[in-house]
């Protein structure tokens, strides 16, 4: 999960550095680029917040192992939350930005530092892989919780220990998501304000 967030941050920071360099050159193209990056960030934030909201029933069941196992099963089967976790059309939007940066006819290409154009394209390509990475991290998390639901339902002396482990796993995943949301917002703000960090 954190690797996917790191990809996003690298792409956004690279964009911010490049955008800072050529302020005033082809300003409409640069503003469109900022708007597109902003929209991508908002989709990521919304996706993460959807998952945080979906974890509330699981957290409410922490005190009852049987109810917790049931909620974990529901979470594992919840295709709506899984779909929301990966921002819709994210990869396609990144591809559009890449296409614009590579087009000799698009003014965006000429509004950026030619020496840094290659770096930003590379970061955006990495970001384009974000879709699959998001699904993989979410699926691994849900799969592990579904396995624990099976262990809880089969009984045994470690039912309470398994339920306690779920509490820890959910809390860690929530902290990663909350940290990701904060990082995305901070990086997005840095780009928009023109002070992205090196």
| Order of helix and strand elements from N to C terminus | HHHHHHHHHH
Q: Total number of β-strand segments?
A: 0
Q: In DSSP terms, counting alpha (H) and pi (I) runs of 4 or more, how many helices?
A: 10
What fraction, in percent, of the residue positions are helical?
A: over 70%
Quaternary state, please? single chain
> β content, as a range?
under 5%
Overall 3D shape: elongated
List key phrases describing it.
mainly alpha; 82% helix; 0% strand
Task: Give a written overview of the molecule.
- The protein has one domain (2-193).
- Helices cover 82% and strands 0% of the residues.
- The chain contains ten helices and no strands.
- It has helices at 2-21, 27-54, 56-60, 65-76, 79-85, 90-102, 107-110, 114-128, 130-153, 159-193.
- Helix 9 runs antiparallel to helix 10 (159-193).
- The mean pLDDT is 75.
Can you lay out the helices and strands and say which pair or pack?
Layout: H1 2-21, H2 27-54, H3 56-60, H4 65-76, H5 79-85, H6 90-102, H7 107-110, H8 114-128, H9 130-153, H10 159-193
Write a compact overview of the structure shown:
The chain is an all-alpha fold and 198 residues long. It has 10 helices and no strands.
């Amino acid at each position: 999960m954190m690797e996917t967030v790191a990809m996003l941050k690298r792409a956004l920071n690279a964009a911010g550095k490049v955008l800072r360099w050529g302020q005033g050159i082809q300003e409409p193209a640069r503003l469109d680029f900022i708007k597109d990056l902003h929209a991508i960030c908002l989709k990521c934030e919304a996706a993460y917040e959807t998952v945080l909201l979906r974890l509330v029933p699981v957290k409410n069941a922490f005190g009852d192992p049987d109810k917790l196992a049931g909620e974990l099963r529901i979470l594992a089967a919840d295709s709506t939350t899984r779909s929301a976790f990966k921002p819709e059309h994210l990869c396609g939007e990144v591809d559009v930005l890449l296409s614009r940066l590579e087009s000799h006819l698009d003014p965006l290409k000429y509004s950026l530092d030619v020496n840094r154009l290659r770096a930003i394209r590379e970061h955006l390509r990495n970001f384009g892989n974000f879709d699959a990475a998001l699904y993989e991290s979410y699926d691994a998390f849900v799969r592990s919780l579904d396995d624990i639901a099976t262990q809880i339902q089969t009984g045994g002396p470690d039912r309470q220990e398994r339920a306690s482990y779920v509490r820890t796993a959910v809390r860690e995943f929530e902290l990663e998501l909350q940290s990701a949301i904060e990082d995305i917002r901070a990086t997005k703000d840095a780009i928009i304000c023109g002070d992205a960090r090196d």
